[in-house]
Specification:
282 residues, Rossmann fold, 9 helices, 22% strand, globular, binds adenosine-5'-triphosphate
């Protein structure tokens, strides 16, 4: 079994980097998240799992200030994101890296310019020799050869594009990196390449990571902590929306049947529950 090397290396690693306090997120009439209070320690890799539509991506976006809490607070390194004006939030986001589901590369730029983009945007005084050095070393880190730099995104496979997305996310040495479905759409081998790169990144940098995923293999392999969310609409008032929060090795032993069914990929009572919801909402 692969064990992520996420042991604390100094005192600061034991302190939370992210604090979520009494978080509620609603859109129009729909409450997606409610009553979420959690901390994420420095250096931790947290996989957020749960069925489609339960609010994983919303949770992740809220952590990095892309969605504002309807109620409650998100603090990064003690800074309440809601209290920042847009320019301060933009400044803080330089400490975050984003790996998007579809790589989100700029189609009109070659790979070199895509990876160089955050450096040129955020550190405009960096000389081009250093830019070149950093871009090439990050491309190497994700296993891409030099000749890829001159290519355009459309010329690369999905797996290569994801690796470029990871190189771009790492180029500013983020403290928090969020991965949105990093292995979706990839074959099992390329998925495992991405998993290995997530682990490799964690070994190289003291980064804190949040990985939103449907892929239980990814969750088990890369995370030292798994949080399972459940759709708010399926719960009664007062029920916790987080059905599981612990090490991946404990998922199978959860006392909650819904957790065990989810990780085994069993529908269980869900078909009946779903039909109840569609009847009542019709
Ligand atoms: N900007 C938005 N405006 C309105 N509703 C939204 C917005 N973003 C998300 N939602 C709704 O919030 C709910 C949760 O969405 P979210 O994308 O977080 O789910 P998810 O768990 O990541 O699902 P999936 O695994 O399918 O990606 C969905 O019902 C979605 O339609």
């Amino acid at each position: 079994m692969n064990v992520p090397e996420n042991k604390p290396v100094d005192e600061s690693f034991a302190k939370p980097l992210v604090d979520v306090v009494d978080l509620d997120i609603s859109f129009e009439n729909q409450t997606v998240l409610s009553g979420i209070t959690r901390s994420i320690n420095r250096g931790q890799t947290v996989a957020v799992i749960g069925e489609s539509g339960c609010g994983k991506t919303v949770f992740m976006k809220t952590l990095v200030g892309l969605i504002k809490p309807t109620e409650g607070h998100v603090r990064f390194d003690g800074i309440d994101l809601s209290e920042l004006v847009p320019s301060e939030l933009a400044q803080l986001r330089r400490r975050f890296g984003f790996v998007f589901q579809h790589a989100a590369l700029f189609d009109s730029m070659n790979i070199f310019d895509n990876v160089a983009f955050p450096i040129r945007q955020n550190e405009p005084d960096t000389d081009e020799v250093e830019v070149e050095d950093r871009v090439r070393s990050h491309l190497h880190e994700v296993g891409l050869p030099d000749d890829v730099a001159r290519k355009f995104p459309a010329e690369l496979s999905g797996g290569m594009q994801k690796r470029v997305g990871l190189a771009r996310a790492l180029v500013l040495k983020p403290e928090l990196i969020v991965y949105d479905e990093p292995t979706t759409g990839l074959d099992p081998i390329m998925s495992d390449v991405i998993n290995e790169l997530i682990l490799h990144t964690r070994r190289l940098y003291p980064v804190t990571s949040v990985v939103v995923t449907h892929d239980m293999h990814t969750a088990r392999k890369v995370a030292d902590r798994v949080m399972m969310l459940y759709p708010r609409r399926m719960l009664s008032a007062g029920d916790s929306q987080i059905l599981f929060d612990g090490p991946p090795s404990q998922l199978e032993h959860s006392e909650d049947r819904r957790v065990r069914q989810f990780v085994r990929g069993e529908a269980g009572d869900r078909i009946r529950e779903m039909s109840k919801i569609s009847t009542t909402s019709a």
